[in-house]
């Protein structure tokens, strides 16, 4: 199996006023391609910080982060943006769609930032929307879509640049349970299609979709269990 | 490059969408820019109109003519300094005529204002000019009907008269005036010619004048009157040499000692043009001052509203950054937005100034047109203000932390 993510002794310390907050106190984590992994932990455990670092939205205070053999922890803001654009597909709890743009335009956004021409962009984005079954709604704006549909748009957006990794932060947190099940089914399908998926959640029922569950507590990995064999 | 064009197009669309969302705010924000550009463009169009008018007004004063007068045309210091100068006399004129080698033609001229009368029609306060043979060449007279004076008429101070085009209309109701006798003051004259239309010069109507031999003026209306001397210069390059020569000859004619100041003035069209230029330059400076000030105030308004816009759209910025927008892409997006707000202001101002120019042209006696350079400059300046005052808010947006932004609701 190919190594996708290699985290070595990741420490993240925030300075809030005069107080130092130790969000991560030395995390080692190895994730391979095509893994389906849940990161669990109560609030304040550091799982959001870990997600931000894995998602290249933040850099660690110390430690080494290798993503597809590239050293991410030394990169500057612009280089990180490039990595996020090409390698990471985000799915957020609150969807984070642009409210004034249509579903299609939202899905096109990552392609705009990788400099793909308008015609090509539209074709790729339509394809991604079709994959999440929203072709008939693609010209609607987020406020004209249900929560589940919004999350599908977000998933289509995460897929559109063919990322190495899909990073989903509480993807069902704002959805009712039925819709949540539908959305999780999409993640299962994506995993079966060969995508690497990291779920950040505090819900056992969501985490159980993954093959491997990592528990974070007080900035440490408390438990790392392979629950299913791939 | 391709990605630059794509992002330019995208950014313009994003900006337009954001502005459409906040139309009222955008318009209020851009008001300062509108005022600034409007000031500059409308002053430019008024001046451009005045220029056309002025050029046609002053063209009757030949640019290759020098005028020797008692007074300078433009008096910058006290008038009384010139009052005690001796009058320009025929003796001066004859001296110049005799000794000038460079001038093409020299003529003396004098004038008075009298009432004129034909049968029961009369006109009051009409300018009566005394002319010579040379005056016809120097002033570029052309005769519509009849003829100009002969040398004999001039030499013998005949009571012949050439009338302006409007005099013919007013006094003779456009009937043929040739050979008719009219009264000028208490003297009777025979009409021998009618001038072509000459227009007016600085508000003075040249078509409402009459012309008689210079000597006749002296004979009928008194010898002790100040005359002026007109000097025709052969070409534009000769203006300065001729002026120097005339200056020298006048001083000799007046027997002025070297340390004495001139007691005459040599005037030329250029003096009026220069004064006019100074005046319009002053207007331009004032307009640019007001324009620049309102553009700066407008620009600060733009900067303020862009900072508000950045704060309001932190979530959007966070999303865009998370999806891979680099700092320069975000910077570019907000700068484009700021430029568009300002350009819209510039365009509104230019439309308004076209409207204003139309109204000025129709309602006031001043001609007015919007010069193309002022339009381009207006657009250029407003875009530049957008760029300049957009940089700071845009840089601030670009440097925001994506995590902070995403957390923002």
Tell me the structural class of chain A.
alpha/beta
Largest sheet, strands/sense/barrel of chain B: 6 strands, mixed, barrel
| Amount of beta strand of chain B | 15-25%
Strand order of the largest sheet of chain A: 6-7-8-3-9-10
Strand content bin of chain A: 25-35%
Could you walk me through the main structural features you see in this protein, from its secondary elements to its overall organization?
The complex is a heterodimer of chains A (230) and B (409). Chain A is an alpha/beta fold. Chain A has a domain of 158 residues: P-loop containing nucleotide triphosphate hydrolases (Rossmann fold), CATH 3.40.50. Chain A is built from 7 helices and 10 strands. Chain B is α+β, with helices and mostly antiparallel strands. Chain B has 2 domains: 191 residues, no CATH class; 203 residues, no CATH class. Chain B is elongated, with a radius of gyration of 33 Å. The relative contact order of chain B is 0.18. At the A-B interface, helix 2 and helix 3 of A face helix 1, helix 12, helix 13 and helix 15 of B.
List keywords for this structure.
heterodimer; A: 230 residues; alpha/beta; Rossmann fold; six-stranded mixed beta sheet; four-stranded antiparallel beta sheet; 30% strand; B: 409 residues; alpha+beta; 2 domains; six-stranded mixed beta barrel; two-stranded antiparallel ribbon; 12 strands
